Structure formats: structure tokens, C-alpha cells
Amino acid sequence: MKRVILAAVMGIFVLPLQAAEPPAAKELFKNIETPSRANPQSLGGYAKGCLAGGVRLFEDGPAWAAMRLSRGRNWGHPALADFISRFSEASTRAGYKGLLIGDLGRPRGGPMISGHRSHQTGLDVDVWLRPLTERPSANQRESWSSYDVVKGRSTLDRELWEKSSWRAIGLAAQDPAVARIFVNATIKRELCKASPGAKWLRKVRPWWGHDSHFHVRLSCPAGVPGCVDQPAPPPGHGCGKELAWWFTDEPYKPSDKPPRKDLTMADLPNACQTVLDAE
Predict the structure, then answer these.
(1) Range of the domain at 55
(2) Which of 134, 147, 202, 204 has the fewest CB atoms within 10 Å distance of its CB?
(3) What is the pLDDT of residue 115?
(4) What distance in Å separates the CA atoms of residue 260 and residue 195, rounded to the nearest whole number?
(5) Does residue 220 lie within any of the structural domains?
(6) Is position 55 within any domain?
(7) Full-prediction pTM beyond 0.85?
(8) Distance between CA 109 and CA 277 in Å, rounded?
(9) Nearest-angstrom CA–CA distance, 124 and 46
(10) Which of 66, 34, 71, 68 has the alpha carbon at shortest distance from 52?
(11) Using CB atoms within 10 A of its CB, is residue 47 exposed (0-12), middle (13-18) or buried (19+)?
């Protein structure tokens, strides 16, 4: 203020200097291609966090193939890699040859440059609804698409549904490490019809999109104090009024909320700066 007052007395008006806006955290994480050398830790929450000591999911396992490798999003906590291994193996007992695995997270987690708000702590994975039927080549990993089993807002493509890996959703939900599974509301409705009363349906939650994959989220691993779990799903199967709401116009009305601002490092746990700066 002294500068402004002095300038005004001299007949010159100078605006005070303003601090530069901090960079978006996604810009700081986007070019990091290696994990930090640290004990594995998921830090913060699924949509405001980072990952120390991440591991890369192999391109191929006994019953999985990792897709879209060029995105560099095949990294996660070791607990997630272990889950993918046992879950994909379990899918073979449901009649599949295996599963196609989409995005996990970046080598050190954190906000992604596009596509996801979560997947920041190495505990989220997208599983394609197109199952593994043959080993994809390097080009096919980039060019293949999954099965979009929902037409329009709420019509199930029955032909694609029957070819899809939908039976694996219940297997994932029964794994004790799984906290939630996000699917399109039309898929949730179909699962409610196919498995009425199943306890695992509580973990399967409708969310926008998710019509060509299901998003599996693990609970925080034991012994990781910096990891923040999401509250448990509401009691019940989630097949009643809360599901019916998705088939009204209410969820799809234009929002009057301002656009979300990009996260900065100040929005993440302090430990994420150490993860970002580590060799």
C-alpha cells in the first residue's frame, strides 16, 4: 500500500503487484514417468492425493492384458496389482479367458491431465466390458475399443451385454479389498434384475458414464495412515429409490454450479510435494 500511496502523491497511480496463480497439480505430475523410491503409500483421498512407491502393472498376466499403454496410466499401489491378478484369475471360473484392463493411475498418482477426477492414489482401476478373447498386439492395445453396452440414456444393448464381462462385476464386488464399483445406472439396474438380493450389490454404485467399463475402487490398505477412505456405501442393495432417481430427468439437468477449479499442490496432502520432488 505504501507504494500505491507514494505513487499517487507523485501523480502516478501504480496497481499493487499480484502473486502469480500457482500451477495446476496435473501439469506438475503429467510428465513424470517413474515412481518415487519409497515404501508404497496411498496418500490422501481418491480425488485429492498421490502415490509413493507405485508399481507398474505388467502388460500381460495369466488372465489379463493391459490396454492403452501409451497413456502411461498402468501404475498403482501393489495392493491394486495383487487384486488385478487374483480377480482376473477368478474371472476364468466365470467362463472368461480373462480381462482387458484400462486405466489405473500415473507413476506417482496425482491429478491426471484428462479423463479422471479420481485414480490419484493408486487404488482405482477401470476394467473393460470387452473381455479378453485373444492377446492384443501393441497396435491393438491402442486401437481396440471396449463394448459400449448402453444405448442412449437407459437402453441396454442386449447383444453386447451377453458378450461382455458383466459377470465379473459380482466377482469383484465380493473381494474383501473392494470398497466400491462404479457402473452406468442401466448396468446397475440389470445387475439388480440378474442377482436380486445379492449382498455384493451394495458396493455397485451408479455413476455418470461407465457404460463401456466398470471402475473398481479398493479400500485403503492396512498400515497406510496417510490414506483416506471414502465413507462406506449406504445400507441396502441400492436397487430401490436411489437407483430409480437415475431414470428421471433430475440427474441430467444443466448445473448452475461454477466449473471446478484445477487442483493445486496446496489442495493435496503435504506429503505429495515430497513424492513429486523425489528422485
Answers:
(1) 44-241+261-277
(2) 134
(3) 76
(4) 37
(5) yes
(6) yes
(7) yes
(8) 13
(9) 8
(10) 34
(11) middle
